[in-house]
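ok, trying the design again with the full structure, not the truncated one.
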């Protein structure tokens, strides 16, 4: 797996490879930076963990450059056209949704040789979607190596985050790759979730 850093807030971009194909999770890094990291692998899909600009900014550039679809929560159209909801620093929005395919909670998606389990995870934003791929959880801004995503933003919901944490703690996963910061794992996240369940329950 290749881990690139995006230009805004060091948001993580993950490139997962199988055979001569790859999928890209989040789009904070420039398309040039992604192209330089592909080692001849062909991107076959882009997944967004949520609509915040540090994760979504280059998604249409990737879709055009690599001629592939952008997969994201069915709730993401509620946010992409709203510069406040996606926290774009220059007040821009993402209005071209023609490359998007929308995902539902629990959906199992097969893209090439990749099997992707979609886990809707509202709380940080209404459109958060976690992806479980080969036992690894791509958690976006829901779970971090130290902490959880903010719930004081537009389209955040503390109660929904609590429900999401209870849902994620029942999932079977090993490594956790977050939208910012470092890799963590199941043990770290069980402690993290237990702590933040108590905070959010107050
Ligand atoms: Zn976010």
């Amino acid at each position: 797996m290749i881990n690139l850093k995006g230009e805004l807030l060091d948001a993580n971009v993950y490139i997962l490879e199988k055979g001569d194909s790859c999928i890209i999770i989040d789009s904070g890094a420039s398309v040039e930076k992604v192209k330089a990291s592909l080692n001849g692998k062909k991107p076959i899909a882009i997944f967004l963990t949520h609509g915040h600009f540090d994760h979504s900014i280059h998604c249409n550039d990737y879709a055009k450059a690599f001629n592939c679809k952008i997969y994201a929560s069915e709730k993401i159209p509620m946010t992409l056209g709203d510069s406040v909801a996606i926290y774009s620093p220059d007040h821009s929005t993402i209005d071209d949704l023609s490359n998007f395919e929308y995902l539902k909670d629990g959906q199992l998606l097969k893209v090439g040789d990749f099997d992707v389990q979609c886990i809707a995870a509202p709380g940080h934003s209404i459109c958060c979607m976690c992806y479980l791929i080969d036992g690894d959880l791509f958690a976006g801004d829901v779970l971090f190596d130290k902490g959880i995503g903010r719930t004081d933003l537009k389209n955040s919901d503390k109660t929904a985050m609590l429900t999401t944490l209870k849902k994620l703690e029942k999932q079977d996963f090993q490594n956790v790759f977050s939208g910012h910061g470092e890799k963590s794992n199941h043990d770290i996240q069980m402690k993290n979730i237990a702590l933040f369940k108590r905070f959010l329950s107050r």
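Keeping the full-length input from now on. The two ends are 39 Å apart (CA to CA).
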